[in-house]
Write a structure and sequence with these properties.
The protein has no helices and eleven strands. It has strands at residues 4-7, 10-13, 18-24, 32-39, 46-51, 58-60, 68-73, 78-83, 92-102, 114-117, 121-126. The termini are far apart.
């Protein structure tokens, strides 16, 4: 059983920054790839960024490339999403998720490939 708890969301002005954290329980965090997803009101959940189990491979969706950075600290069982130059269209509930498989060496973007999810943290960007 894995529990994921996000934190760090809030209200920020356009152009500002936030850092989201996702604290994971259990001893196997370092074995799994992780991802961040988001869901805006009235829209489907979408992939934002993913990271391999070691942290050596990352992938960011085009709309956040150059602005967001995913990272992880396996010693602290924590996943991060640094968000800079925030835009109003980044407003959403952000979720972290654990990949189904251990030690994969690529990042996958489909939400069906992630089996544990956090409760989400709200990010609101005012223009």
């Amino acid at each position: 059983q894995v529990q994921l708890v996000e934190s760090g969301g809030g209200l920020v002005q356009a152009g500002g920054s936030l850092r989201l954290s996702c604290a994971a329980s259990g001893r196997t965090f370092s074995s799994y790839g992780m991802g961040w997803f988001r869901q805006a009101p009235g829209k489907e959940r979408e992939f934002v960024a993913g990271i391999s189990w070691s942290g050596s491979i990352t992938y960011h969706t085009d709309s956040v490339k150059g602005r967001f950075t995913i990272s992880r600290d396996n010693a602290k069982n924590t996943l991060y999403l640094q968000m800079n130059s925030l835009k109003s269209e980044d407003t959403a509930v952000y979720y972290c998720a654990k990949h189904l498989n251990t030690y994969i060496v690529l990042v996958t973007t489909g939400d069906s490939e992630y089996d544990y999810w956090g409760q989400g943290t709200q990010v609101t960007v005012s223009s």
